[in-house]
Amino acid sequence: MRLSEAQKAVHTWISQFEEGYWPPLSNLARLTEEVGELAREMNHRFGNKTKRSDEAEKDLALELGDVLFVLLVIANQQGIDLEQALNQVLDKYRSRDADRWKRLD
């Protein structure tokens, strides 16, 4: 699925509810919460924080999906084309960091 298609799918989902999009700062708080859940799972798997014995392992892909969903929500609400934004960022990295790291041979 292209990012533009994902943005449309998210908009279709949200548009079916009377509440619609949450206010921008609520969406930012939600993004922070989702990134926190991702960070917690990453720390359990790769960091020093071990899980409690009664705590189930979470699906890392779903945690990333939650973060992506909220990013798509914010982009939609702000009228941002994420495909265009990502292409601009990749161009920036390609020029700014072209010689920053050693390339694989």
Q: How many beta strands in the DSSP annotation?
A: 0
Strand share of the residues? Answer: under 5%
What is the C-level CATH assignment? Mainly Alpha
Second rung of CATH, namely the architecture: Orthogonal Bundle
Count of domain modules: 1
Report the major sheet: none
Which descriptors apply to this entry?
about 100 residues, mainly alpha, flat
Describe this structure in words.
By secondary structure, this protein is mainly alpha-helical. The protein has a single domain (3-96), classed as Helix Hairpins, CATH 1.10.287.1080. Helix content is 67%, strand content 0%. It is built from four helices and no strands. The longest helix is centred in the middle third of the chain and has 23 residues, at 24-46. The protein is flat, with a radius of gyration of 17 Å. The mean pLDDT is 94.
Give the topology, please.
Elements: H1 3-15, H2 24-46, H3 60-78, H4 82-96
Would you summarize the structure shown here?
With 105 residues, the protein is mainly alpha-helical. It has helices at 3-15, 24-46, 60-78, 82-96.
